[in-house]
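Q: Is it fine to ask for two folds in a single conversation?
A: Yes, each is treated on its own. Send the first.
Q: Here.
A: Result:
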Amino acid sequence: METATKDTKSKDSQQQKKGHPSGDKRFKQLDITMKRNQYRQDSLIEVLHKAQSVFGYLESDVLMYIARGLKLPLSRVYGVATFYHIFSLKPNGAHTCVVCMGTACYVKGGGEVIKALEKELDIKVGETTADDQISLMAARCLGACGIAPAVVFDGSVAGKQTPEVVMEKIKSWQE
């Protein structure tokens, strides 16, 4: 029994040295980030940030790898990854459009902006157009209530948006 335990520990430490079984070197970067944070569970958001910057989005096997590395239940890792709008579980399009749906933005027209985008792009929030050009997302709150409704175009926040102004920007991406 004791020998089996030693063998298992030996295999685990060899696995950590080698990285991911797929041989994908990007997992090594996650290992470095987790090690720098001493595999603390409270470093989850930082590790998820690193994973998204390295992989482009958070695939299910990446989430499982992080859960194992930080000794967290997969449900917790998935819960954090889906709670924050900055994390994506699917590859994004070439351009991203994030519409704030916080109370101030919604009341001042954020919902109308979403409706117009969904109709024009023929996709729902959380989806990417068939040509992989535009991803449409909604945020719970961007913290930009003073410029409501706010929309983030490829990482740049724009305030006091109307469906017409947003459609002009989207059409410029489609040209």
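Q: Second one now.
A: Result:
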Amino acid sequence: MTEPSGRRERKKAATRQKIADTALRLFMERGYEAVGIRDVAAEADVAVTTVFAHFASKEALVFERDQDFEQRLTRAVTDRPPHEPLIPALRREVQALVRHCTAEGGAPVRRMIEGSAALREYEESMSLRHAQALAVALTADPHLSRSETACRATARFAIDAYALACRADDPEATVDEVFRMIEAAWEAAAP
């Protein structure tokens, strides 16, 4: 996540992180369904309105790095050196994101998400939004010369690679396998 520069921005970021950390701790201790926004606000010692100033919904508390995730994926496209091929750059970023989701302590959070219909639904809507943002970045790159359909499919497959790998016994092998397919499809879509 980008480091906030000014004092006010740092304070807002610290409050946001405190709320997210408190919420996750409460969800893990009591169960996601048993904890309300008021519980999180009280435990974090902030007003309910402060929670909603930082997070649009209870589900967003679980996925607090959502915006950072999307930015990292789009930057893998937009910030790569001009000579660097697209698919390896995307694969590298997805692998880094997968390492984060499968790091120590990630399994209980994944189980919590899988056990909640509301969280699974929120995660799916997030994935669609991330795929759309990534597709826009791919389509906008004049050096890629692929159709909008190819860009949209590639974006969706990259997001799905992440989701599959986070649930896999061997996350790195899963990313590699899916990206071999993505690369073959990308090359087949070349004009």
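Q: Anything structural to flag on that second result?
A: Two points. The chain has ten helices and no strands. The mean pLDDT is 92.
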